[in-house]
Structures are given as structure tokens and as C-alpha cells.
From TrEMBL:
This is F-box/FBD/LRR-repeat protein. Residues 268-371 form the At1g61320/AtMIF1 LRR domain. It comes from Arachis hypogaea (Peanut). It comes from the Eukaryota. InterPro entries: At1g61320/At1g61330-like, F-box-like_dom_sf, F-box_dom, LRR_At1g61320_AtMIF1, LRR_dom_sf, LRR_FXL15/At3g58940/PEG3-like. Coiled coil: none annotated. SUPFAM superfamilies: F-box domain (SSF81383), RNI-like (SSF52047).
Length: 472
């Protein structure tokens, strides 16, 4: 026996916990000792896409093997009276009919084993084609649970109102795209988590069990009280939100693209006296609301406004703001933020951006949105509209265009076209003499430059690149 295998089990478990999941699982084939260590390892992460793969005629046989494997590991932990520290289950919901009984069994076993982290993911894309999974009530009696993540075709029924919830240790709760039989179930559940620090509620649906083919409606309101420990919250797809959380520091709210964005924002922020980071997406806000924001939250350091329906002009005035992200079409942006370190802008290329005060360490990242035909030629206008010019200590240009255009441009065939559009004024591009190409992947020596560019620009899955070094 090697010296590592002779180490105590808890040390070997700590070693496995530090390895990638795939590498940790491979240790089970090293020896009988390592196999026994793996089966007593209290962290289980099961994903049918990885273990089973794509659909095949042998799918039932593969599912049976998966069922046997998971059951044996959980039984091993129970036999040795070991706590299940983490149990993650990521399954395609089309297996629900065959797997629901085993899901129930596993939920009961990990609950009895005092599970600390439980993640169940049954994300779906065709809600009416597969059966939903009714989550056992035993999950909400686990006093040891510190993190609970529920995603996908999982149903919380009305019996939860009459059932004891004992999530006294829960600090992280994520509810994503769940089916609830009553819109008040989510509020009822959260109200019984006194130590909650991190909350996510994402596009949950009100589900009618008697008529499942009836149009499902999103949960439209969320009223939460007494969350004294809550520090981070992400809410998406809910029209009206009120959260009483005086210690909240980080809030992300997305109204949702499926609602009318002309409706005023119904997000109560009055209790968030310590808010440091606010992210708003797909929301309707006004200039006055934005001005009041910095008076209400003197500690706000990070503000993100993405796809927000607002006025054409915004004014940002804050001595504490350090990070600003704007992704909306505007005509004018005025920034008075002496401690601003990072500003990301994505929007209309005609916007006038003025820095009344700025830090010497400001990093300005701009992705102006152009009309397709005039994108390159309006770049000069966009840069000239940035005041003062001293904030542009350096400039990085990213070009997104068809592969044919990139090839023609680099090979010099588009120079005259650029010359014409700039009114006869030549730029550095006309003095370009050498283009050096570096590939991050192996290429055939016979592969010409144009085909190489075509191959990499048409690829969407591989993280491969072509780098161009330009010399004058």
C-alpha cells in the first residue's frame, strides 16, 4: 500500500474535494482502498448528460446503472453514519416518469444523512411534454441544510402551507423556473429561513394541477419581511417586489422581457441602507429615479443599467461610485464620479459622453452600436463625442464583421473604400505594409490565409483564435 492510501479517511476525502470531479471519480479505479474511499466520499455530483450522454436505445439500461450507483453510495454513507455534505443532481426532466420514485428515495436518504448542500436541477424547454416532479416535504425539515438550489420542473404544492419548515441553518436559497400551486408559497418558504444571506428567485410559474395545459402565469409579486441577514439577492421576472432587508449589499433585478417595459418600476429599495451594488435589467426607470438613487444609497459603488427603458439623457453624480455599466441607447451621458475606476458603455454610437470629473485610473470600455453599413465610418464621430479627450489614454478596437470583409480589409482591397468614406482623408490603414498571422491551433502548411480565417471565424464552439500583428 502506498503512503497516501494509508492516510486517514477524512484526509483522503479532503484530497478528493480539491480535485476536479472527473479526476476525483477516476481515483476509484486505482485500488480497492481508493474505491472504498470514493464510495464513502460525502460529496456526490450526478449529471446524466455526463454519465449517460445523449439519448440511445439503451437509455433504460443506463438509467438503471445510474440508479444503482447513486443508491449504493448513499447507502454506504448511511451505513457509516457519515453526513452527506453535498448532493447535486442534474437530470433531464424527460426521465421524471421513470426516475421520480428514485428521486424520492434519494431525497429521503440525504435528508436522513443530514445533508448540508442540496442542488436539484430539472431544467426543461418543453413544459407540457414531461411530467413535473413533486418535491418531498422531508427536504424542508433538514435542520443541517445550509444551501438549497431548486431549478426546473419541480413542483411545490399547497401542502407546504400546512407543513413544518425547519430550514433554520439555510444561508443560500435559489428557486429557478419552479412550478408553484399558489403564488404565496415562495414567500411562505422564505419567511422560515431566518439566517438567509443569499437569495435568488428566477421566473417561477403559478401552476394549475387540475388543468396543466392552462396558460401558466409568472409569479407577479414578492413581499418579504424581516430578512435581517440577507446580503445578496437576485430577482427576475416578478413585476412588484418589496424586500425588508436592512443589511442587503448586492441586488440584481430584472423585470423580464415578457412584460410591458412601459410600466413603471415597482421595486421598493427604501430599506437597503447599506446597498453597494445594484444591477437593473429590462426595467423602466426615469431620470428623477436615478438622481434620487445616489441620495438614498451613499455607499453605492457598483451600478449596472442594462436594457433599461429610460430617458434619452442620464446624469450620474456620486463620490463613491467605482464601477458603472450602461447597456442602453442614450443620447447623452454626464458623469460626475471622481472615484470611478471602470465604465463600460454599450449603446448608440451618437451618444455624447461627458466626464465632469474622473479618476486618473479610469478604464473606459466602449462598444458603440452602429448601423451595419456605417459602423466603421461612425467610429470617429463616437470618439469625438467623448469629453474630455484625456480619458482616452489608450484605445482598443474590436472588429466584428463577416469573414470575407476581414480578409478583404487585411489584404488591402478595402483601402480605397475607406478613403472614399472619410472624404479623401487618409489614415494609418493606408500605410499598412505587413500583416502577420498567429494561430492558437495547428494548421496544415498548405492551408491558405483566407481559408484559415474562414475556418476560425465560422467556428462557434472551440476557443480558438487568429491574432493579427500589423506593421506600418
Amino acid at each position: 500500500m502506498d503512503r497516501i492510501s494509508a492516510l486517514p479517511k477524512h484526509i483522503l476525502h479532503d484530497i478528493l474535494a480539491r480535485l476536479p470531479e472527473k479526476d476525483a471519480a477516476m481515483t476509484s479505479v486505482l485500488s480497492n482502498e481508493w474505491r472504498d474511499t470514493w464510495y464513502s466520499f460525502p460529496i456526490l455530483s450526478i449529471c446524466d448528460r455526463i454519465i449517460i450522454g445523449s439519448y440511445s436505445p439503451q437509455i433504460i439500461s443506463k438509467l438503471d446503472k445510474l440508479i444503482g450507483y447513486v443508491t449504493r453510495r448513499l447507502l454506504k454513507l448511511r451505513e457509516q453514519s457519515l453526513t452527506t455534505k453535498v448532493f447535486k443532481l442534474d437530470m433531464r426532466p424527460e426521465h421524471n416518469n421513470y426516475m421520480s420514485h428514485h428521486f424520492d428515495l434519494w431525497m429521503n436518504m440525504v435528508s436522513e444523512n443530514r445533508v448540508e448542500v442540496l442542488e436539484l436541477c430539472l431544467l426543461y424547454f418543453a413544459p407540457y411534454l414531461v411530467r413535473q416532479y413533486d418535491l418531498p416535504r422531508c427536504v424542508f425539515e433538514v435542520r443541517s441544510l445550509t444551501k438549497l438550489v431548486l431549478k426546473g420542473k419541480i413542483t411545490l404544492n399547497q401542502s407546504f402551507f400546512n407543513h413544518s419548515i425547519k430550514l433554520f441553518s439555510l444561508r443560500t436559497l435559489c428557486l429557478r423556473e419552479l412550478l408553484v400551486e399558489d403564488k404565496g408559497i415562495i414567500e411562505h418558504l422564505i419567511s422560515h429561513c431566518p439566517l438567509l444571506e443569499d437569495l435568488t428567485v428566477y421566473c417561477c410559474l403559478v401552476y394549475n394541477r387540475k388543468n396543466p395545459f392552462e396558460n401558466e402565469k409568472f409569479v407577479e409579486s414578492l413581499f418579504l419581511h424581516g430578512l435581517q441577514k440577507l446580503k445578496e439577492a437576485e430577482i427576475q421576472g416578478i413585476k412588484e417586489v418589496y424586500i425588508d432587508a436592512p443589511n442587503l449589499e448586492n441586488l440584481c433585478y430584472a423585470y423580464g422581457p415578457f412584460y410591458n417595459l412601459e410600466v413603471p418600476l415597482k421595486l421598493n429599495l427604501d430599506s437597503f441602507t447599506r446597498l453597494r451594488c445594484l444591477r437593473l435589467r429590462n426595467s423602466s426607470i426615469t431620470e428623477k429615479w436615478l438622481l434620487d438613487l445616489f441620495h438614498k444609497f451613499p455607499f453605492l459603488e457598483h451600478l449596472e443599467l442594462c436594457s433599461c427603458n429610460m430617458l434619452e439623457r442620464i446624469n450620474i453624480s456620486s463620490a463613491q461610485l467605482m464601477i458603472l455599466e450602461v447597456n442602453s441607447d442614450l443620447k447623452e451621458v454626464n458623469i460626475d464620479a471622481p472615484n470611478l475606476l471602470s465604465f463600460d458603455y454599450c449603446g448608440d454610437h451618437r451618444a455624447i459622453i461627458s466626464f465632469l470629473t474622473s479618476s486618473d485610473h479610469l478604464v473606459f470600455n466602449a462598444s458603440p452600436v452602429h448601423e451595419f453599413r456605417h459602423g466603421y465610418y461612425s467610429l470617429r464621430e463616437f470618439i469625438q463625442n467623448i469629453k474630455p479627450q484625456k480619458v482616452l489614454a489608450s484605445l482598443s478596437l474590436s472588429v466584428y464583421h463577416s469573414n470575407g470583409f476581414v480578409y478583404e480589409l487585411l489584404m488591402g482591397r478595402k483601402k480605397q473604400e475607406w478613403f472614399d468614406h472619410f472624404g479623401g482623408t487618409k489614415c494609418w490603414w493606408h500605410d499598412l505594409k505587413i500583416v502577420k498571422v498567429t494561430y492558437s491551433f495547428n494548421v496544415d502548411e498548405k492551408l491558405d490565409f483566407k481559408n484559415a480565417v474562414n475556418a476560425i471565424l465560422l467556428s462557434t464552439d472551440d476557443r480558438e483564435s487568429v491574432s493579427f500583428s500589423l506593421e506600418l
